[in-house]
Structures
1.
Amino acid sequence: QARRGQKPRRKNPRTNCRRHALYVDFSDVGWNEWIVAPPGYHAFYCHGECPFPLSDHLNSTNHAIVQTLVNSVNSNIPRACCVPTELSPISLLYLDEHEKVILKNYQDMVVEGCGCR
Amino acid sequence: GAVGLIPDIDRRKYSDSGRQTAERSDMNFLNAFEQRLLSMFGLKRRPTPSASAVVPQYMLDLYHMHSENDDLNIRRPRSTMGKHVERAASRANTIRGFHHEEAFEALSSLKGKTTQQFFFNLTSVPVEELITAAELRIFRDQVLSEAGTGGFHRINIYEVFRPAPATSKEPLTRLLDTRLVQDSHTRWESFDVGSAVGRWARESHHNHGILVEVLHPKESGASEEAQRKHVRVSRSLHSDEDSWAQARPLLVTYSHDGQGSAVLHANREKR
């Protein structure tokens, strides 16, 4: 029950680095003619901000050490990137251009985890 | 390159916010994604299989049996893999199925014996792939005989070293595998042809095919013609064409291209 009068909490427009769901349905792109199984591919991907190494909220304290740290960050150094940190394989059953049937295991196809690196 | 097949530039366009309206960026995105997928498969262009392309049930069973993509709760028929390939198959990251070239068949039905030559075209196997095992799967159809008890057939599998110089002569062959089977059963038989197939993939000029010899039982209630139907080695031995596509002999190779983990333990590889 939302309390009367309280402004709804503003959703943080910038989401931190995390894994986002993304499913490619092979029939949507016409690949189900040659990819027999699976019917689609849970691709996932990593996206989001990397406030690493110092989060902005740290700047809200006037403690000398914190202020020194926050103000000594060299803004020319590029920020960390939001990249996959854990991966897993998938098996695909498909027909090649000679109409031969192949069952193959592909490494590092599913993003299991993301992180700032 | 395989990580996340979705090209960076367009990922967020295809997530929660739904599809972009600009047709052009859709096509660019899909083309980029397709090129990545094809290059990962080692394919130069998108395959366009004909309607007559057949996916053997055994390959589907292997996929469902071991793939983590599949809902393991669904009970499916389980093909029986040949014991001799299990170990090598557990290390393979590529499994290929081949049907023989019917144009090169050489069926001969002598008294008490049926022989058939099979040629499998392995040129689609990339040179960097090492074949560690191969099985020739042959289907047997139950023979009903008045006596009720099934007769015993001997199935011999030979590698053809040198084709017969003339039709009256015998080819030069080497025995690869043999089995005594009772014709009152219907099932797939798996024969170990790994030593020959591994060499053919490396040196295709050695590939003169496989000769299958079926010796039929002398004393049996079934007619000679019925006996010939037991081991499915030729389309012409059977009236119903429909079953041939799924009952024809299948060569299955187990190989590794040096990348990634085995197919048959994908779920165990998950990190």
Note: The two ends of chain B are 19 Å apart (CA to CA).
2.
Amino acid sequence: PVKKKRKDEL
Amino acid sequence: MNIFRLTGDLSHLAAIIILLLKIWKSRSCAGISGKSQILFAMVFTTRYLDLLTAYISLYNTSMKIIYIGCSYATVYLIYAKFKATYDGNHDTFRVEFLVVPVGGLSFLVNHDFSPLEILWTFSIYLEAVAILPQLFMISKTGEAETITTHYLFFLGLYRALYLINWVWRFYFEGFFDMIAIVAGVVQTILYCDFFYLYVTKVLKGKKLSLPA
């Protein structure tokens, strides 16, 4: 699975 | 966004608000570890620097501003406004034993050796152990005010819900962040002892006292 680097979590 | 992450964020927000209101309304920070609150302020500061560089959503931005604002307000209330009620004799955890190893580890184990990423990693590792001074203080005083236990419950619940959120995102989005997951597991494990006491005592109307 890809590890999306966009940090969209708090 | 999924229901686990949303309730996790709301649980986190509830914890932060409960603590701020407890100190403000009772005009006292007795039983509260100022050191843990300083660590949380450091966590939010180092994690949310991307407020200046990236816009993700109104929700994301507003929650980050609320978290940072409330955490600094709480530190201010403890160390300035209600300083007289701060129980420094029991808030004696050596935070340098947390910050230094966490700082070193964030340089060694991270996704990308860039300043923002290392600071984000530092904040993730630090958050995992930031509650230790507070738990240590409760073990020293041997008890905790009921409102403080509710604060700790929601604070511990938030990261437990995030763990479920990461399972959800792995399954549905193929998304996972090993650093956040491992730190989140450690963080939640540190609350297990407290969760047991909270469920067996506080939810039965008893006061949370340790030696007994």
Note: The first helix of chain B runs from residue 3 to 26.
